[in-house]
TrEMBL record:
This is Type I restriction modification DNA specificity domain-containing protein. Keywords: DNA-binding, Restriction system. It comes from Novosphingobium sediminis. InterPro entries: Restrct_endonuc_typeI_TRD, Restrct_endonuc_typeI_TRD_sf, Type-I_RS_S_subunit. GO terms for biological process: DNA restriction-modification system. Belongs to the type-I restriction system S methylase family.
Amino acid sequence: MSASPFPEVALSELASIKYGYTESASSQPIGPKFLRITDIQDGSVDWESVPYCAIDVADAKKHQLEDGDIVFARTGATTGKSFLIKEPPNAVPASYLIRLRLTGKKLLPEFLSLFFQTEAYWHSIEKGSSGSAQGGFNASKLGQLKVPVPPLEEQKRIVAVLGQAFTALDRARAFAEANLSDAEEVFPSILRATFSNTSERWLSQLPPEKPETGLVGRSSGRSKIATQTGGRSATTRPIQGDYGLCVLKPEVAARKGWAWTPLTALARLESGHTPSRKRSEYWGGEIGWIGIKDARDHHGGVVYETREQTNPLGIEKSSARVLPAGTVCLSRTASVGYVVIMGRDMATSQDFVNWICRAALSPNFLKYLLLAQGEEIRRFASGSVHQTIYFPEVKGFYICHPTREVQDEICTSLDRACAEAKKLTAFYQEKVKDIADLRQSLLQRAFAGELT
């Protein structure tokens, strides 16, 4: 940002600076409203939802918020966030807020509020917060902050021009964000329509092929490769799904040309494992090891490289397995629902269930079917604290599928739809960014004295 042509004055010379009140919030109307930083959302406050606090009359008078005050978040992840108070009810700020009240006639509250949105201001906050564990910015530091102070008439002009421009930008941003939200929903909607148990989108007159026994991909010759998982038997408790996935054979009939088949008849089920973290010699090598962060980074795609690698010794000395390229992996623990395909021979952590598809099942088709579940995948999980899809349920999975030929046709269409949806999403993401950049550019010009 260009150097300001306006004189700069320490904030302590322009405003009284006071910490908020320390008290517990209450839903009962036992005193004034108790404004917290969490009550300020997207530049506004829903005063009806703000709680109350118990405070005596003398303290209430000292802390009471007035029209034109600015509250400032002084700690935590929201440090530096501010809000201009307009026509407040009977209210006091909470302790993690600092109340600024301008004194004298040198500065307009609206002008100061605009300054608190500039890059120069946020740079000062970041610099002043460094070294603090919680990123704090106390009243003393705030008082030392230098604020540009142009003549009042210039302040009024800047506030008027930016106010009008920002109103238009806010409308444009809302429109772009709505379009972005719609764009982000395009592909999930296509997936749900494709795999819905009642969908007529993909019909085939051909009967489903009989599952074959051959596995997709070749093993690399390493020890303990593609060993079928053991453990408990499949559950006897049916769970109905809506998008081509159920636990046990569902009552709903398969669509014409499709069939409900146990997933274990179409793909070999494999588990994962983590070599001992206490043995450094088990880590580092050429064998990729997929963890939750890898699945999050590549959700819906193919994994070729992983954050961590193991080696033949780590595989040999653990229950980890090296699985072939093309294996489909589903995260099943605290982060339920990430889906990836192995781009090369790899292993996974125990947070995954993995399927090596036989010739009758396309790995890409299984990937898309699992992605179609979205948040609905959690209906197959259980657990009061951390939701987990356990192996008895996984062993009971049935999927609804057409022939391999039709699967490939579906996947080709979905690949194209996915690519187009990503382009559309990227377009509106760029629009939202452009609007934010334009807002910041106008602020920079205003405080550099270049606003015409």
